[in-house]
Amino acid sequence: MKKRGTDALIVVVCFFIVCLVSCLAQGGEERLLDLPPELRTHNYARGSCCHAALIDLLRWHGDHEAAEKWKEKYSGAQAVAGGRNGGLAEKLEAAGFRYAYTTNGDEKFLEWCSRNRHGAVIHYYVGHAVTFRGYADGFAILQNNNNPDRVIRVKKADFIRRWKGYGGCALTLVYNPYPPAPRLEGTK
């Protein structure tokens, strides 16, 4: 006859092994922020790229209601922080969201975003923001909200150099480190 503690220990060990195997299996592209095409935000209102990228992050974290409210309320050019009309950080603060950002090209910030599947709103290209989906196989994976169905792959070293050249700004939401895969309503 087994003791009760032994059964519990076996369950805990099995759970740990399943979790460990699952974590080790999550590598490369599988760990990236990757919204279904139907949920990706196209740039809107003639230049709302920062907002479009943020809406993708909200959807990735499963907050579809907040994403729709954000799109209804905000449009136009926007900085990650500061600026004439306040940046995304100030708007997120006022709305009570948890977020983190950098405006000094901190490479470790994007490493953290990628490692934890958060993605980020980044300034990339002249006067434009895109969604940083993460790093995979030595490349930065980007999604341009002017054409969100197209994935952009840039060698990591080139990407970092360019990103810093465009100001080195990035912002992410700080919620579940491993968000569930988003899905459309009515799907399983």
Can you walk me through this structure?
It is a single chain. The chain has a single domain (32-173), classed as Cysteine proteinases (Cathepsin B, Chain A). Strand 2 and strand 3 form a beta hairpin. The chain is of the alpha+beta class. The protein is globular, with a radius of gyration of 19 Å. It has helices at residues 4-25, 49-60, 64-73, 88-95, 107-115, 156-165, and strands at residues 99-102, 120-123, 129-136, 139-143, 151-155, 170-173. The model is unreliable at 8-30 (pLDDT under 50).
Offer a concise description of the structure.
With 188 residues, the protein is of the alpha+beta class. It is 38% helix and 16% strand.
The main pleated sheet reads as: 6 strands, antiparallel
Beginning-to-end CA distance, first to last residue:
42 Å
| Overall CATH class | Alpha Beta
Number of helices: 6
Note the overall shape: globular
Helix content: 25-40%
Mean pLDDT: 82
Low-confidence blocks of residues? 8-30
Number of E strands: 6
Order of helices and strands: HHHHEHEEEEHE
Key phrases:
188 residues; alpha+beta; Cathepsin B, Chain A; 6 helices; 16% strand; globular
Secondary structure layout plus pairing:
Layout: H1 4-25, H2 49-60, H3 64-73, H4 88-95, E1 99-102, H5 107-115, E2 120-123, E3 129-136, E4 139-143, E5 151-155, H6 156-165, E6 170-173
